[in-house]
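DM between two lab members

TW: hey, do you still have the Bacteriophage QLRG family, putative DNA packaging entry open?
JB: yeah, one sec
JB: this one, 111 aa:
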Amino acid sequence: MTVEEMVALVKANLKIEDDSRDLTITDVIQEVLNFCNLMEPPAELEPFIRRKVKAIIDYEAENSNTVFDVQSIREGDVSITYNTNEVSRETIYGLSDKDKKALMRFRRLRR
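TW: and the structure you got?
JB:
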């Protein structure tokens, strides 16, 4: 399956009709391909990529008007607490340990 076919399949399954998320979907696919050392995505990776893109869309919708990764701000003696939980910006946009574990069965050795 080509990257373009995977993008179209993910968009169809998420019911995305415009091109506004093409870059996000392509970025997720490329990150998965890089981690797995693959040239083209197998069809079996579509559910993983779809869930990852959906998580990004949901995260952006929920946090669109706030500063990313700031959990709390206290003004008296200035204290800023950052969100370093499992659901941080880096784990949403990148591959978390859980994601890497799920992708291990698709991973190939480099030649």
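TW: got it. Strands lie at 70-74, 79-82. The chain has a mean pLDDT of 85.
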